């Protein structure tokens, strides 16, 4: 009886078809979790709102922009980068948790695509990043942020921000594969992603930093994304006066950084995942 | 055992640094049977199952499941196996039903077939009522049942059960045993690891006893028991009886040395089981003028097998192995 039913209702779709369908099934799993526990979205909703309000109304008054302009308008370009990149520790936590339960063992004993588990994770996180980007834009509009360019530029800015965020998600997956506890993954948020955000032009212009720190901040991918968004939104962009290559070509710099990170971290993540089992 | 084994391992070796979790592990499981892998903590049972289920790459030796090599044809192996580990492999935040459907779809069932199978299994495992609740609200026994249901959704021909009843209460354990028996009756090949001798005795047609990463004894539970000395006749004499006379009278019926139990009127007589043996023994003693209070036949249990093979008793705690194995990253 089991032999007869075993051949019923099964499908063969070829490697790519199976990969796509596995990714879809697993992405739905992550989305279902968000629907059950919406508080997991706090890091892309409440946190960016708090940061925007703090910087706009607490620190903002003390931060002068070279070349002038509204700090509130300046802030949103940087906030987009921070809001998206800081989902990476959350990705790492989710990966560590998954790897430490028996669920991943089950996945690995199934005839499913090896790369699907990680890809689905990053796609679910990309969806939360879309929510995060909308929240940042919404709170930005509320505090007086305005766009002074066309729809094409705005779409380009958000596309760059999401490409950038997606690249960070793969970095988060690698972290999750290397770290052993969800607590350690949570800590990585402070140890790696906080300095990455603050040693950049996300919140303050690099011109005010000590001379030795300026090159670090100017080449920081976070600065490139902030400058690219400011440029595309038509917001104050003091980086335009900086001579460093990424400051002069922020959009290209974001693409280079993102593609570079994807090329490094995506294969590395799959390699780390496979190393734990027979590929 | 003339048929091709459903699961076959030859000289499997798996090392973690200097620790040999498997040190030349051999196994041949006949198709359509329940096979017990018995051993104490750290004997290598879990490692063996993880290698056979393609979760770990062995350092040496080879193994096949239904003729597919677990290393070079891992994808084919995964199409025919199901695995239920010591820890419920479920998504805590999904409902029971959603878990089953997800695993079904990942097992290459179509969405419709996965939903139909999920409902069948929920019914079969008495989980229909809880089907719509998140798994994190489930009790330990419910999780194990759902976990087993998840392993079955793709109709595996070979099922690995790693300590399926560890930590379960007696009624949940009895339910699990019934399920195992039903699966075996349907023709599924089951490899079951356990620390419970009783469980192996109850369920398994053949048993391999593991210690130190290899199989140290193999056979049917009865074969193993008789290898340790088979049956014993416990003879309790009336107070003040002549022990020497009793031993002389029993000698023709014994298959080995008769040992008097010190400080008592009790004799332990190794015998070969035969019909009417007890009656013959009582008559012989009566003829010798020895008064008998009681005669009982005691058969060796798998506990005795275990003790005599490994020099220690089976431990009841859950296996300590996974620390070495959970992170196979080394």
Summarize the SSE layout with pairings.
The complex is a heterodimer of chains A (279) and B (330).
Chain A: H1 2-7, H2 14-36, H3 46-59, H4 71-85, H5 88-100, H6 102-108, H7 116-143, H8 151-178, H9 182-198, H10 214-219, H11 221-233, H12 245-248, H13 250-275
Helix pairs in contact in A: 2-7, 3-4, 3-7, 4-7, 4-8, 4-11, 5-8, 5-9, 7-8, 8-11, 8-13, 11-13
Chain B: E1 7-16, E2 19-29, E3 34-38, H1 45-52, E4 60-65, E5 68-69, H2 74-80, E6 81-84, H3 96-106, H4 111-124, H5 140-152, E7 158-162, H6 170-185, E8 189-194, H7 197-203, E9 206-211, E10 214-219, H8 221-227, E11 231-237, H9 243-250, E12 259-261, E13 266-271, H10 277-287, E14 292-299, H11 302-310, H12 322-326
Parallel strand pairs in B: 3-8, 3-9, 6-7, 7-8
Antiparallel strand pairs in B: 1-2, 1-4, 4-5, 9-10, 11-13, 11-14, 12-13
Helix pairs in contact in B: 3-4, 3-5, 9-10
Question: How would you describe this protein?
Answer:
The complex is a heterodimer of chains A (279) and B (330). In chain A, 72% of the residues lie in helices and 0% in strands. Chain A has one domain (12-275). Chain A has helices spanning 2-7, 14-36, 46-59, 71-85, 88-100, 102-108, 116-143, 151-178, 182-198, 214-219, 221-233, 245-248, 250-275. Chain A is mainly α. In chain A, helix 3 (46-59) packs antiparallel against helix 4 (71-85), helix 8 (151-178) runs parallel beside helix 13 (250-275) and helix 11 crosses helix 13. Chain A contains 13 helices and no strands. With 330 residues, chain B is α/β, with parallel strands linked by helices. The longest helix of chain B is centred in the middle third of the chain and has 16 residues, at 170-185. The chains are: A mainly alpha (279), B alpha/beta (330). Chains A and B meet through helix 1, helix 2 and helix 6 of A and helix 2, strand 6, helix 3, helix 4 and helix 5 of B.
């Amino acid at each position: 009886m089991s032999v007869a039913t075993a051949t019923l209702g099964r499908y063969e779709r070829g490697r790519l078809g199976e990969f796509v369908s596995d990714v879809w099934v697993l992405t739905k799993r992550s989305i279902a979790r968000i629907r059950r526990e919406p508080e997991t979205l706090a890091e892309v909703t409440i946190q960016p709102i708090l940061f925007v309000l703090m910087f706009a109304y607490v620190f903002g008054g003390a931060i002068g922009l070279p070349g002038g302009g509204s700090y509130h308008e300046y802030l949103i370009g940087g906030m987009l980068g921070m809001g998206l990149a800081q989902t990476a520790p959350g990705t790492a936590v989710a990966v560590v948790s998954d790897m430490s339960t028996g669920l991943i063992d089950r996945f690995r004993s199934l005839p499913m695509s090896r790369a699907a588990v990680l890809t689905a994770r990053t796609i679910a996180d990309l969806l939360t990043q879309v929510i995060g980007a909308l929240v940042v834009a919404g709170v930005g509009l509320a505090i007086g942020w305005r766009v002074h360019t066309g729809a094409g530029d705005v779409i380009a800015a958000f596309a760059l921000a999401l490409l950038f965020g997606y690249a960070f998600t793969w970095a988060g997956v690698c972290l999750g594969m290397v770290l052993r506890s969800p607590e350690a993954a949570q800590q990585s948020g402070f140890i790696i992603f906080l300095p990455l955000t603050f040693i950049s032009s996300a919140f303050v212009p690099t011109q005010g930093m000590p001379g030795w720190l300026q090159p670090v901040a100017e080449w920081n991918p976070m600065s490139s994304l902030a400058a690219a968004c400011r440029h595309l939104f038509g917001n104050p962009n003091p980086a335009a006066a900086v001579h460093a290559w990424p400051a002069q070509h922020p959009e290209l710099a974001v693409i280079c950084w993102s593609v570079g990170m994807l090329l490094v971290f995506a294969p590395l993540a799959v390699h780390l995942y496979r190393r734990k089992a027979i590929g | 055992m003339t048929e091709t084994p459903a699961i076959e391992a030859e000289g499997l070796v798996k090392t973690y640094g200097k620790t040999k979790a498997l040190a030349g592990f051999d196994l041949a499981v006949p198709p359509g049977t329940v096979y017990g892998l018995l051993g104490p903590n750290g004997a290598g049972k879990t490692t063996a199952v993880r290698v056979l289920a393609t979760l770990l790459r062995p350092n040496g030796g080879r193994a096949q499941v239904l003729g597919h090599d677990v290393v070079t044809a891992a994808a084919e192996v995964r199409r025919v196996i199901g695995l239920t580990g010591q820890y419920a492999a479920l998504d805590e935040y999904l409902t029971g039903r959603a878990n089953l459907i997800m695993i079904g779809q990942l097992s290459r069932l179509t969405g419709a077939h996965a939903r139909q199978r999920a409902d069948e299994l929920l019914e079969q495992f008495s989980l229909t009522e809880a089907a719509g609740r998140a798994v994190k609200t489930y009790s330990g026994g419910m999780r194990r049942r759902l976990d087993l249901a998840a392993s079955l959704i793709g109709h595996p021909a070979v099922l690995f059960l790693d300590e399926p009843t560890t930590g379960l209460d007696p009624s949940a354990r009895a339910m699990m045993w019934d399920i195992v028996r039903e699966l075996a009756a349907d023709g599924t090949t089951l490899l079951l690891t356990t620390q419970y001798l009783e469980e192996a005795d109850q369920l398994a047609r053949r048993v391999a006893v593991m210690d130190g990463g290899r199989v140290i004894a193999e056979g049917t539970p009865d074969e193993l028991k008789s290898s340790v000395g088979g049956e014993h006749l416990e003879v309790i004499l009336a107070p003040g009886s002549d022990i020497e006379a009793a031993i002389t009278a029993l000698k023709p019926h014994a298959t080995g040395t008769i040992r008097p139990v010190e400080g008592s009127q009790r004799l332990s007589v190794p015998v070969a089981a035969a019909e009417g043996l007890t009656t013959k023994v009582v008559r012989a003693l009566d003829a010798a003028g020895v008064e008998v209070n009681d005669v009982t036949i005691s058969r060796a249990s798998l506990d005795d097998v275990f003790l005599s093979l490994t020099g220690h008793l089976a431990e009841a705690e859950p296996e300590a192995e996974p620390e070495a194995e959970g992170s196979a990253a080394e």
